[in-house]
């Protein structure tokens, strides 16, 4: 019954107007404690779900609608009454952005998180539901901890030492179940970086890698993905083309992999993609000449990395998202306008902008204007925007298809 309730809430968010979906989600959650039969409601949900999908497929999207779906923001605030929350919610409601990432500053306890996620989700247009994302790897990188009423998860290196993929699947099912219960539909993990440098400040030193070999990494990363799929949550393999050999941290500064990177770091991406275990790939702000267009441009801003290597040589055709474009590796070397244009030109489908100062109508309007002008000036192809939008909508519909299939 509980599983059906969770699924029903997801489908209701597509089928009914925002205010109705919000009311129904609360009602259905309360009903989860009873044994009431929803057999008739199931048929209604499924038929209305298909009607909405057909309607959405027929409606052509404007350039601004497509651009909006490519933007994922961080925001400030913890409750619906916060001005910053209301401002961000309006951006979702107008389709000016397509998703949100929740950071530590947005989180207090389980009930508060659930309420805030539900409030934000209910604002999104029917045919453009929101991605609601979080970084929940385990260990040092987990936003939701025991202090918030969630289960503390082991870091990747600890999990790899204690057991195999079966144990990992059980562990990550607990994680995914908790995330799904409060409404998240995207988790920025697993890390598939190989542990090639024990002095690496952002991977090895934080215990974020499962091991030194692709085989080790793929087994545990696959368990992470499978566990999240059971609770209808998309995942992201990161950090392409591989952050495990680096000596510096892209959060802080430029990362040059030209002398440390190994081709084996691509194996998890190729293998997991072929096995259908890659919902999305997050591209790192990492420089290597094989993944750089010209000069010293990081992979996240380079066509060569995404279109030539990831999509071309590795054959990956799913969603691609940047790492946070506010990191030092980008912000210290590129202007805001150049960053936005290059990120889209490179072939990223989603631009991740964690800085909550961007969560306002003026800044988002500026981003839309930058991209619109670049399309007008033929710096960015409209065909490329359409392709990104198509992949985003396919992923969003996939979430709903999974939900409807479980009814």
Would you kindly provide a written description of the structure presented here, covering whatever features stand out?
- By secondary structure, this protein is α/β, with parallel strands linked by helices.
- It has a single domain, classed as Glycoside hydrolase, family 3, N-terminal domain (TIM Barrel), CATH 3.20.20.300.
- It is built from 15 helices and 13 strands.
- The strands form four sheets. A six-stranded parallel β-sheet has the order 7-6-3-2-1-13. The chain has a three-stranded parallel β-sheet with strand order 8-10-12.
- A hairpin with a 2-residue loop joins strand 4 and strand 5.
- It is globular and about 50 Å long.
- The chain starts with a helix and ends with a helix.
- The N terminus is likely disordered.
Defining key terms:
6-stranded parallel beta sheet, disordered N terminus, globular, TIM Barrel, 3-stranded parallel beta sheet, 15 helices, 407 residues, alpha/beta
Class from secondary-structure proportions: alpha/beta
Q: How many helical elements?
A: 15
Radius of gyration: 20 Å
Major sheet description: 6 strands, parallel
CATH superfamily: Glycoside hydrolase, family 3, N-terminal domain
In short:
The chain has 407 residues and is of the alpha/beta class. It has helices spanning 2-15, 18-31, 39-58, 63-69, 83-93, 110-121, 156-162, 165-181, 214-229, 267-274, 303-313, 328-331, 336-346, 361-376, 382-406; strands at residues 71-73, 99-102, 131-134, 136-138, 141-142, 186-187, 234-235, 237-240, 255-256, 280-283, 286-287, 319-322, 351-353.
């Amino acid at each position: 019954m509980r599983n059906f309730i969770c699924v029903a809430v997801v489908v209701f968010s597509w089928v009914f107007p925002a205010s109705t979906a919000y009311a129904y989600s609360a009602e259905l959650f309360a009903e989860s404690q009873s044994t009431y039969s929803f057999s008739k409601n199931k048929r209604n949900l499924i038929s209305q779900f298909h009607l909405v999908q057909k309607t959405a497929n027929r409606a052509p999207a404007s350039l601004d609608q497509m651009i909006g779906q490519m933007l994922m923001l961080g925001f400030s605030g913890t409750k619906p009454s916060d001005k910053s929350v209301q401002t961000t919610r309006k951006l979702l409601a107008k389709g000016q952005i397509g998703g949100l990432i929740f950071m530590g500053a947005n989180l207090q306890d389980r009930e508060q998180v659930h309420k805030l996620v539900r409030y934000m989700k209910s604002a999104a247009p029917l045919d453009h539901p929101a991605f609601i994302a979080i970084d929940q790897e385990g260990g040092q990188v987990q936003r939701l901890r025991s202090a918030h009423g969630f289960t503390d998860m082991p870091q990747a290196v600890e999990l790899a030492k204690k057991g195999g993929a079966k144990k990992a699947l059980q562990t990550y099912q607990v994680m995914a179940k908790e995330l799904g219960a409060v409404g998240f539909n995207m988790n920025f993990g697993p890390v598939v970086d190989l542990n090639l440098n024990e002095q690496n400040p952002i991977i090895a030193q934080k215990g974020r890698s499962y091991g030194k070999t692709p085989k080790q990494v793929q087994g545990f990363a696959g368990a992470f993905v499978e566990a999240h799929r059971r609770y209808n949550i998309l995942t992201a393999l990161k950090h392409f083309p591989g952050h495990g050999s680096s000596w510096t941290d892209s959060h802080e500064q430029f990362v040059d992999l030209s002398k440390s990177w190994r081709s084996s770091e691509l194996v998890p991406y190729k293998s997991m993609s072929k096995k259908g275990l890659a919902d999305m790939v997050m591209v790192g702000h990492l420089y290597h000449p094989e993944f750089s267009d010209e000069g010293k441009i990081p992979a996240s801003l380079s066509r060569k990395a995404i279109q030539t290597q990831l999509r071309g040589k590795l054959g990956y055709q799913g969603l691609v998202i940047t790492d946070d474009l506010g990191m030092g590796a980008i912000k210290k070397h590129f202007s805001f306008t150049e960053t936005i244009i290059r990120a889209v030109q490179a072939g990223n489908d989603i631009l991740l902008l964690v800085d909550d100062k961007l969560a306002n109508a003026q800044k988002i309007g500026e981003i839309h204007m930058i991209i619109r002008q670049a399309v007008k000036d033929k710096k960015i192809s409209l065909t490329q925007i359409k392709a990104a939008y198509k992949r985003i909508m396919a992923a969003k519909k996939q979430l709903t298809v999974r939900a409807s299939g479980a009814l």
